[in-house]
Amino acid sequence: MRVSITMVAREAGVTPAVVSRVLNGDATLRVRDETRARVLAAAERLDYTPNQAARSLRRSRANALGMAVHDMSNPLYGEIVQGAQRAASEAGFALLLADVSSLARGDAAARASIRGGAIDGLLLQRAGVPADRVILQTASKHVPVVLVNDRSRTLASVAFDDVRGSYVATRHLVDLGHRAIGYLNIGRTGRASGRVQGWRTALREAGLTPGPVVDALHTIESGERGMAELAAGAELPTGLVVGNVLTAIGAMTAARSLGIRVPEDLSVVAYHHVEFAAHVTPTLTTVRMPMAEVGARSVQLLLDQLEGGEPRQVVVDDPPPELMVRGSTAPPRR
Question: Which of 229, 320, 321, 319 is nearest to 270 (CA)?
Answer without folding.
Answer: 321
